[in-house]
Structure to design on (389 residues):
């Protein structure tokens, strides 16, 4: 950067500092200083999130490609500009030539946002994944389960895979967007919900449907090969849960699998939990299920209302039922926790009893003559209720 530009920036900074000092209150000074930061382009770092991207000579259509950068590369951000509704950043690379040029903002994530994503991941670092998922369309990764502009991290590509760590049911808005793929600052055209069928169902006394009342948001963990940002929230309408092939046929119309965990994985090994929701071969599983009926208590919906444990006979090459709660009779919350090694394991979940108390309950799984068995909590009856019809 030449001496003339430095002088200009210094003068701008001095001018705004003078304005701030001559006004009453620190708020005016802070605002003035923020404006200076925007004007003079105080630098910060950014990380490339695209597989590959080009640093270009300008943000014009006919600009030349100067340098190809790859996912994970660090860049210094010098300034930004919006050109034809696209946000561009002027950056400096760390190659031998310290190449400077322009890159589309959608291809990078700033250090500030990256640190927030890492903080989100730290909240569940010791928990196993609850399910596995894949995007059926490009979707924004966010810091919170809503579409506010300040929560946007970046757009995750169609087909991206991830581990589901948690989810949240959010009441549907009347003018809700169908998808979440808008750029920062862009307002997605909303579609008005059709409430005729919902109202008709209410008139004849049918229970409210979960998917008619709520949108689901998934809190996800991403592999470094997919994204430098390790965690965020995804809008559920663009998420497809990846139920393993050997158990998907046990999923019935009146209930869906929401969480699954492979029991014949050894959780004693460091990092073994990474593979507990995926499998290329048949095995034994714990499965938490959810019926499509609204069951909110004090505004909170259960994460699951049924438990299935399936064993797998390697000689007959068939699954068999080890344990099944009644369909829709439980009121339970995540996370699903699994402990133990080899054939002796236990799993715990939080269940609400008939008195409204939520307690962690432990189920013990063991092998008996090559068959898997399960011992439920002794007081299990008080956590079961009649399913909603």
């Amino acid at each position: 950067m030449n001496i003339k530009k430095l002088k200009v920036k210094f003068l701008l900074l001095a001018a705004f500092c003078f304005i701030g000092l001559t006004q009453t209150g620190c708020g005016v000074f802070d605002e003035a200083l923020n404006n200076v930061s925007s004007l003079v382009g105080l630098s910060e770092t950014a990380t490339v999130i695209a597989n590959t991207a080009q640093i270009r000579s300008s943000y014009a259509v006919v600009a030349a490609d100067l340098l190809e950068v790859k996912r994970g590369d660090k860049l210094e951000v010098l300034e930004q500009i919006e050109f034809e509704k696209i946000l561009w950043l002027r950056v400096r690379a760390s190659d031998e030539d310290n190449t400077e040029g322009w890159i589309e903002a959608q291809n990078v994530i700033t250090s500030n946002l990256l640190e927030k994503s890492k903080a989100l991941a730290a909240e569940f670092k010791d928990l196993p994944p609850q399910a596995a998922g894949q995007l059926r369309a490009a979707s924004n990764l966010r810091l919170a389960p809503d579409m506010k502009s300040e929560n946007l991290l970046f757009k995750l590509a169609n087909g991206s895979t991830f581990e589901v760590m948690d989810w949240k049911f959010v009441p549907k808005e009347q003018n809700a967007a169908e998808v979440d793929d808008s750029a920062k600052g862009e307002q997605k055209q909303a579609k008005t919900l059709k409430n005729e069928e919902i109202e008709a169902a209410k008139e004849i006394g049918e229970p409210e449907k979960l998917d008619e009342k709520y949108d689901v948001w998934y809190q996800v963990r991403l592999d470094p090969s997919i994204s430098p940002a390790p965690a965020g929230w995804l809008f559920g309408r663009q998420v497809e849960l990846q139920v393993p092939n050997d158990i998907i046929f046990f999923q019935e119309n009146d209930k869906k699998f929401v969480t699954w965990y492979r029991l014949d994985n050894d959780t004693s090994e460091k990092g073994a939990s990474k593979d507990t929701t995926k499998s290329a071969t048949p095995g034994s599983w714990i499965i938490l299920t959810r019926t499509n009926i609204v069951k909110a208590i004090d505004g909170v919906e259960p994460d699951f209302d049924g438990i299935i444990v399936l064993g797998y006979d390697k000689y007959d090459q068939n699954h068999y039922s080890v344990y099944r709660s009644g369909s829709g009779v439980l009121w339970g919350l995540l996370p699903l926790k699994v402990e133990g090694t080899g054939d002796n394991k236990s799993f715990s979940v939080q269940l609400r009893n008939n008195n409204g108390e939520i307690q962690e309950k432990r189920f013990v799984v063991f092998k008996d003559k090559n068959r898997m068995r399960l011992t439920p909590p002794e007081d299990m009856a008080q956590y079961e209720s009649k399913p909603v019809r």
